Amino acid sequence: MIPSLRALRRTVLVTASSSLLAVGGLVALTAPAASAAPAAATGGNGANLPYAEVQAENSATNGTVIGPSYAQGQLADEASYRKAVTLQGSGKYVTFTTPVATNSIDFRYSIPDTSGGSVYHAPLSLYVDGVKQSDFDLTNAYSWYYGSYPFTNSPGSNPHHFYDEVHRLLPKTYQAGTTFKLQVDPGDTASSYTIDFADFEQVGAALPQPAGSVSVTSQGADASGAQDSTAAFNAAIRAAGSGGTVWIPPGTYKIPGHIAVNNVTVAGAGMWYSTVTGAAPGFYGNSAPSPSTDVHLKNFAIFGDVQERNDSAQVNGIGGAMSDSTVSDLWIEHDKVGAWLDGPMDKLTLSGLRIRDTTADGINFHGGVTNSTVTNSDIRNTGDDGIATWADSSLGADANDTISNNTVQTQILANGIAIYGGHDNTVSGNLVKDTGLTQGGGIHVGQRFTSTPVGRTDIKDNTLIRDGSLDPNWQFGVGALWFDGSQGAINGPVNVSNALIEQSPYEAVQWVEGTVSGVNLDNVTIAGTGTFALQEQTGGAAKFSNVTATGVGASSPVYSCEGGNFSVTDGGGNSGIGGTPYCGPWPAPHFPGYPAESVTATPSALHFGSVATGATSDAQTVTVANPTGSAAAVTSVAAAGDFAQTNTCGSSIPAKGSCTVSVTFKPTASGARTGTLTVKAGGATDTVALDGTGTAPGPVLAATPGGLSFASTVVGQSAGAQTVKVTNSGTAAATVSGVSVTGDYSQTNNCSSVAAGGSCTVNVTFKPTAAGSRKGTLTVDSDANNGPVTVALSGSGIGATTNLAAGRPASASSSNNPYVASNITDSDASSYWESQNGSFPQWAQVDLGTGYKVGRITLKLPPATAWNTRNETLSVRTSTDGSNFTTVVPSKAYTFDPNANQNTVSIALPGSTARYVRVDITANTGWNAGQLSDFEVFPSS
Description:
By secondary structure, the chain is mostly beta strands. It folds into five domains: 51-201, Jelly Rolls; 245-570, Single-stranded right-handed beta-helix, Pectin lyase-like (Pectate Lyase C-like), CATH 2.160.20.10; 615-692, Immunoglobulin-like, CATH 2.60.40.10; 701-798, Immunoglobulin-like; 810-939, Galactose-binding domain-like (Jelly Rolls, Sandwich). It contains three helices and 76 strands. The protein has a ten-stranded parallel barrel with strand order 25-28-32-35-38-41-39-36-33-29. Strands 68, 70, 71, 72, 73, 74 and 76 form a seven-stranded antiparallel sheet that branches. A hairpin with a 2-residue loop joins strand 7 and strand 8. The longest helix has 11 residues, at 230-240. One of its GO terms (biological process) is carbohydrate metabolic process. InterPro entries: Agl_cat_D2 (IPR055149), ASH (IPR031549), CBM6-CBM35-CBM36-like_1 (IPR033801), FA58C (IPR000421), Galactose-bd-like_sf (IPR008979), Ig-like_fold (IPR013783), PbH1 (IPR006626), Pectin_lyas_fold (IPR012334). This is Choice-of-anchor D domain-containing protein. It is found in: Cytoplasm.
């Protein structure tokens, strides 16, 4: 935005929050008649990205994991997932393991600013599979801004925009499983390095020169980047002529300013190969009202050197006006704006863009931009809105525009996607996450910045994760999805459908300023908020249908002090948004947990053991799970090496669904054989390592599983038997000479001989002789040519002093919040459960997870002397199924004395088998409720 309009965004009336808090009538939904629960919203998957992203905090490191944090001005707040790793001091490292074959790396980092804000460079060491590579050159040049809009590079208050990125095309392809270590070596001079994530991509070969095109080098362009190539580019455009094609060969070309384009195609060898760089390089169409036409820009990178926010400067990657044109597969970085298009103009398509590390917007359709599209693009770390349509009334309405299937994240200021005025615009299929870090949210519709009226706007099939923040001026949260009518009433309609809103730091959906009507929420799933599900702060009207909210942080799911000024129509199918709205001081947020985000394949490795060459092993199974709320398209499932696969995945894995991949091993040679199973689905790539050993023809035995793990078992008692299958994948029968076990294990078997292609079974039992970890080995000796077969055995013995209830689920007849039942198994003596006051009997119980012979329980109250001596009258009951209970200790008064027994009571049990242990409390002389701090259960000896 231009400075005068940006100032409007930053200005807030002092009276806003106080007037919004005025007590008024309450708005609540009345639950309709019971009906089938609506299907959860599936949202959108965003762009189809060619790289796999690995988070630093999930990688091997001896550095410091920071976050999660939603506090502005903190490094963690601007990191993806709100977490990162800081490396401070020589020898500190983070090691990324690539899940895919890769010949490139890109990582996001931050190094500290200097005290005066001067630019400096600092190396960081890279090791690939332990082998030192050339250092990365990192800089603070494009990060660290201060103060209020339009910001400054001079250190002061309100530091932000901490991160930058660096990338490298590697000289060869590294297979999945390769390690990339970023390490602080003695010569690495920054005082600290904070690493957010790394992207790994298999970059294809450079594209060839298009037939009939004019190469910029033929006109004198310098591919080394040393000399200014502006004149050569312009000469190539003239030589290509109207409708011609200009070719940018692999190389780096210095273009300090703009290249004017009209009725021309400019094509490169790919965004990793052909790079235009300079102080502020950009490709600009003619100015409206006579826009350029038939412009096609594709397959190159634009890397600027913009280090400030100056809204009067035209220092954008793409600019001007272009009708009937396309911009595709460009990488734009370190410009003010990736693409700022000033209308009127018509039918422009932007696709496959990577826009990163800008000082202002990623993409902005500014006034009178119609029938245009932004699709399948990746926008991150922008200094303002990620993607915006701004229907500036001086230029005309943005209309019939589509923002679809984009991934938008970490916008430092404002919103991921914003619609300022205009009509008949669509926002669909986008993934918007970790954005709205200050003064914004995920997706926004606003009658603001002198825009034309907000007309019909369709917001459908979008996913919003961790979007929104505490507005530093308003001092209340901005929603992940929010509507603002500050400069005129919004009548829309604004139709929001199939929206998945997860882990919002503050509210999920917000109405604020002016009058906002015509908002229709249909099939909206809200999963986790820091405060409210719905925050109604202004007059207007909305219709809610199939809106569900869970994991709401505030005491009520709805904030409203508007009373009848905000009218809600209940379309049915709603849940979790009813009851009495809250109207009062802003509550502190309770930040929600992390949602599942991507398709996973488990286990991460399969081991096939020894198989005769030419023979085929038994199949082993990989489960591909989609824990997200939307269907995941399956791109490919493939096995490499001496391995084959079949699968049930089809073309799509449903939301919360899974499929299976069956993998077999058929060695083509003797010795160790390795391979990979690669699953590409839902925009993620998962790799499973495969290995086995080829052996000469003859008997070849293998055991599955390769290890047995037994449930924790009371010392002297026996766990249920588990079975090992011994198979012969060889070409001749195997004679078994012996089967043996070590440790606290025993076995029976039918394995005297195993025919070729046949199998036998070994049943193993576990009877611990002592508490703690108990390990052993099953060994099958035979004449097989791959030697003895072994299976690792593990289990744990439970001693008489082991608390079976520690960390187990607990429940109660009632609770006096926050003194909930889970406090009795948290091993924290200061936390406690308290039942509803003034009502007996009450009960509390623990679920041990499986049946044990139980010998005693220990009940505790907080040991502080403030808890005076009291008697609680109680009995003990046990159950194996949670429904049918037997009284094992009759009712009796037990004294809890902070001095005599530290408020601790032990009760012997008869040693019967129980999974559920319950105490029924009928009286308490110290407080008119049931109370317990710890509920411990111990096995019988």
